[in-house]
From TrEMBL:
Protein name per the record: RNA polymerase sigma factor SigW
NCBIfam families: sigma70-ECF (TIGR02937)
Keyword Cell division (UniProt): no
Domain (RNA polymerase sigma-70 region): residue spans on this chain: 16-81
Keywords: Sigma factor, Transcription, Transcription regulation
Length: 179
């Protein structure tokens, strides 16, 4: 193993420590399949490392990894085709359960959080994909509009507008009488 390989291994080891969990959560939320999300997250790091080993430039690993993962998720959606609504609902509840902290001290509070989380996730799934993706990247993954722009290949202004409009649509779904 040469010096360049050791440097790459170190860089990707650090990137995995820093971003592995958030990439997995992002993928689990988008895929609604925990096992497949884990596989795609691992594949994301593998493909990114292969790209770097071939001489590809990675300026900022976080947006690059998200973009790679996004492409893998799109490929997976294309392979899957149509999924039943019942399966989506079951998977969505499992994702909400995974995202909640494992605190069992107050089961009523946890049940309310689970219900609110499932309701929010259900509403999020009703949004058109571009809005849903922008909101997930911004508020769940906590990426900046600039990082999101790098991932989706659009201007920062277009991303900011999409987030704003997506939030408006989400609010209309969650609070239909509020308009």
């Amino acid at each position: 193993m040469g010096v360049a390989d050791k440097t790459l291994n170190k860089m990707f080891g650090e990137a995995f420590e820093a971003y592995g969990n958030e990439l997995f959560r992002h993928c689990a939320l988008r895929m609604r399949d925990r096992e497949r999300a884990l596989e795609l997250t691992q594949e994301c790091f593998l493909r990114s490392m292969q790209y770097a080993k071939k001489g590809g430039e990675i300026r900022d690993p976080r947006p690059f990894l998200y973009k790679t993962l996004r492409n893998l998720i799109i490929d997976e959606y294309r392979k899957r085709g149509i999924v039943s609504l019942e399966k989506m609902a079951e998977d969505a509840q499992a994702v909400v359960d995974d995202l909640l902290p494992p605190d069992e001290s107050n089961t009523l509070e946890r049940a309310v959080e689970r219900h609110e989380g499932a309701t929010a996730l259900e509403a999020l799934q009703k949004l058109p994909e571009p809005y849903r993706e922008a909101i997930v990247l911004r508020y769940i993954d906590q990426l900046s509009p600039g990082e999101i722009a790098d991932i989706v290949g659009e201007s920062e202004n277009a991303v900011s507008v999409r987030i704003h409009r997506g939030l408006k649509k989400l609010r209309a779904i969650l609070e239909p009488d509020h308009e």
